[in-house]
């Protein structure tokens, strides 16, 4: 099937306002502003990167030293993600060292194209990477995630939950607001089976806790009651390589499903926060 017509949203009831948009043909400059309000909850921007550009990025990915990747229970990531940055100086230096390696590899076209993309869909905002307060060095613009077959699902979470375990990072980044956080990722390689992004009918304002981060059976609501995921409405998002997904990953609970076959699921993504001056 031609990926330009392949459905990216799968489910009988798409209960949040997610849209598939042909980029750049049907793209307006107000997508970020609409995501900041109640008008939109998520956008699958189709074919932001061409097949040629995706293949060029994947060739550059092969240059990442294995020793620089961070191993986790579902695969690997590079550079280290913000959750590794604590008040332990060694962990901060590890983060900055991996970021230096990232900047030394041929990923400038990737980051420049993402800047171009965000400036197009967020014309009323200026897009940039925030700095650490204590040394004025830039934080990472995102990271690659390599989710591997038969490792299990990427645990159910939302951005606000992850913020609770990353106090040191958020307290040491300049000029960002925590509320209104969005998530984004560029799909680079899709696995043969599985790997869908599952979106749950759960919001942080009603469900704000997990007792074990890496379990996927239940979350805990504001009254302390367990909410079992098997009983929660859901739909899935299956972007194609070259698509960029942007959604309200701060308040919306989500996870990535188990992967089958030989291929890893490879993405580049991260979080979007608004500045204190909302510009």
Brief sketch in words of this structure:
This protein is an alpha+beta fold. The protein contains 6 helices and 18 strands.
Structure description:
The mean pLDDT is 93. The strands form four sheets. Strands 2-3-15-8-18-6-5-4 form an eight-stranded mixed beta sheet. Helix content is 21%, strand content 28%. The chain is an alpha+beta fold and 279 residues long. It has one domain: q2cbj1_9rhob like domain (Jelly Rolls), CATH 2.60.120.620. Strand 11 and strand 12 (218-221) form a beta hairpin.
Kindly list the characteristics that best describe this protein.
279 residues; 5-stranded antiparallel beta sheet; Jelly Rolls; 21% helix; 8-stranded mixed beta sheet; 28% strand; alpha+beta
Rg: 18 Å
Q: Strand portion, in percent?
A: 25-35%
User: How are helices and strands ordered from N to C?
Assistant: EEHEHEEHHEEHHEEEEEEEEEEE
Strand order of the largest sheet: 2-3-15-8-18-6-5-4
Give the biggest beta sheet: 8 strands, mixed
**Total domain units:** 1
Highest-level CATH class: Mainly Beta
Can you identify the CATH superfamily? q2cbj1_9rhob like domain
Number of helices: 6
Q: How much helical structure, as a percent, in the residues?
A: 10-25%
Classify the fold: give the CATH topology: Jelly Rolls
Q: Average pLDDT across residues?
A: 93
Shape: globular
Number-wise, the strands total 18
CATH architecture: Sandwich
| Class derived from helix and strand content | alpha+beta
The parts where pLDDT drops under 50 for at least 5 residues are none
Distance between the termini: 41 Å
């Amino acid at each position: 099937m031609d990926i330009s017509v392949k459905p990216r949203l799968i489910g009988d009831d798409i209960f949040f306002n997610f849209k598939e948009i042909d980029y750049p043909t049907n793209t307006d400059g107000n997508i970020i502003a609409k995501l900041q309000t109640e008008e939109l909850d998520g956008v699958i921007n189709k074919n932001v990167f061409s097949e040629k550009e995706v293949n060029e990025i994947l060739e550059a990915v092969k240059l990442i030293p294995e020793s620089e990747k961070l191993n986790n229970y579902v695969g690997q990531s590079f550079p280290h993600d913000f959750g590794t940055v604590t008040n332990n100086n060694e962990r901060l230096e590890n983060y900055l060292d991996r970021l230096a390696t990232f900047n030394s590899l041929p990923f400038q076209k990737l980051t420049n194209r993402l800047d171009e993309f965000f400036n197009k869909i967020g014309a009323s905002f200026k897009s940039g990477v925030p700095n650490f307060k204590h040394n004025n060095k830039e934080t990472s613009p995102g990271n690659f995630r390599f989710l591997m077959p038969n490792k299990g699902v990427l645990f159910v979470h939302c951005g606000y939950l992850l913020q609770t375990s990353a106090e040191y990072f958020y307290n040491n980044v300049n000029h960002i607001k925590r509320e209104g956080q969005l998530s984004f990722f560029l799909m680079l390689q899709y696995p043969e089976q599985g790997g869908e992004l599952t979106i749950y009918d759960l919001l942080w304002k009603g469900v704000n806790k997990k007792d074990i981060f890496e379990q996927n059976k239940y979350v805990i609501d504001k009254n302390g009651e367990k909410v079992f995921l098997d009983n929660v409405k859901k739909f899935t998002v299956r972007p194609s390589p070259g698509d960029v997904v942007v959604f309200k990953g701060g308040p919306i609970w989500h996870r990535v499903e188990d992967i089958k076959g030989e291929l890893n699921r490879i993405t580049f993504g991260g979080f979007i926060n608004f500045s204190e001056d909302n510009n």
